[in-house]
Amino acid sequence: MNLRSLLVGILLTVPCTVHADGLPTKTSGPYLGLGGGYSKIDARNDFVTVSGEDLSLRVLGGYRFAQIPLLFNLDLGIEVAYVDLGEVDEAIAGVDVSIDMNAVTASGVVYWPINRSLDIFGKAGLYAWDGKVKAQGVEMLDDSSTDLSFGLGIAMQTGTGFGAQFEVESLDALDGVWVATLSATYQFK
Question: Do the Cβ atoms of 132 and 100 come closer than 8 Å?
Fold first, then answer.
C-alpha cells in the first residue's frame, strides 16, 4: 500500500465516522511518545538526483486540550518532536552519495473523536531540518532550513494513559520528504 492510498483511505473514512456526542470525553494533559517508521527523501538539482527510503525514529511530546466546546466536538493540541529521517544512499557515476536528515518539529493538532478510544487527527506545523550530503563518506554540504509540514493520522487511547498513533506527514523540504510513523504514547493525568 502506498502513502497516497493511505491518505485517500483516511479522508474517505472521516465522513463515515460515528459522531461522538454523548461519549465520555478524552482528558486534557501532556503526553510523551516514541515511534519508528519509514521515510522517503527526494533531492534533485541540475546534475544529481538522490532518492530513497530509510527507517525513521521519532521522540515526541505534546499537550491535548480536550473538552473545548468547538464545532463538531473537535479537540485541539500542540506537539513537538525530534525526528531522525534516516540516511538515503545512491551510487551516481560510481560515486556513493548519501543524504542524512534530522529535524525538530512543532505542530498544531486537531483531533476528531470517532469513539471513546479512537481519533482521526490532522496536523500542520514547521520542520526545522538539517541535512548533510556526503560523497564517498566525505561531507560535501551541510544545509538546514525551516519548512511547512502537514500530516494525517489515527490515534488510540486505552483509558490507562497508554496509547498509540499512526501518522503520515509530508514535509516541503528538498524535492519532497514523506514520513510514516507508528508511535507508542503515554498521557499523564
Answer: yes
CATH number for the domain running over 3-187: 2.40.160.20
Q: Which residue has the cell 470517532?
A: 114
Query: Hey, what's the cell of 88?
Result: 538515503
Domain boundaries, the chain: 3-187
Rounded CA separation 21/2 (Å): 34
pTM to 2 decimals?
0.78
67: left (phi over 0), alpha (psi -120 to 50) or beta: left
Q: Average pLDDT over the chain, rounded to whole?
A: 82
Q: 57: pLDDT confidence band, cut at 50, 70 and 90?
A: very high
The mean per-residue pLDDT over the stretch 80-92 comes to 88
**Which residue type, as a one-letter code, is found at position 157?**
Q
Using alpha carbons, select from 27, 31, 33 the residue that is nearest to residue 65.
27
Give dist(CA 9, CA 88) in Å, integer.
Answer: 28
Q: How would residue 46 be classed by pLDDT, with cut points 50, 70 and 90?
A: low
